[in-house]
Amino acid sequence: MSLFIIDVEADGPCPGLFSMISLGCVRLDRELKTVFKAQFAPISEKWVPGALAVSHISREQHLAYPAPEKGMRVFGQFLETTSVGRPIFVSDNPAFDWQWVNYYFHAFCGENPFGHSARRIGDLYAGLEKDFSAASRWKALRKTKHTHDPLDDAMGNAEALIAISDRFGLKLPGLARTG
Fold this sequence. Notes:
Layout: E1 2-10, E2 20-27, E3 35-39, H1 49-54, H2 59-63, H3 68-82, E4 87-91, H4 94-109, E5 119-120, H5 121-129, H6 150-168
Parallel strand pairs: 1-4, 4-5
Antiparallel strand pairs: 1-2, 2-3
């Protein structure tokens, strides 16, 4: 299995009623060079101006992005060619990110290669710390600044996951032990 760290930006709170703006993905390994990024034209007339502002784009820019069908097919091919075994979805907030990827894969490709589950970095960290309230402290381990560019954000989350693995001696697919 391969772990893929995913981040999504969207123009509203839920798929179908609103649209995904962009997606960033990093396969977890020590090099963090296997990456994917795509932008998607809206699938809905509804949008929240503040959500676009977080992504630093206008509605006009979003309307000019490529059709989501192609981007999701290419993303599926990326996962198929870069995953060793089953791809595993990992995110800062899969309750948000996974729902978009799941909806778009089903809408445009017929199935979601991640299946019906995802892993949350904060829960993993809180468990390792044995402290439920530690769930957001892992974010200090990011090296790449959290910019709301989904590839930057996925990269920072992947960096933090490597640091967590090294700190706790956690075996993760794609990461050889150091030291």
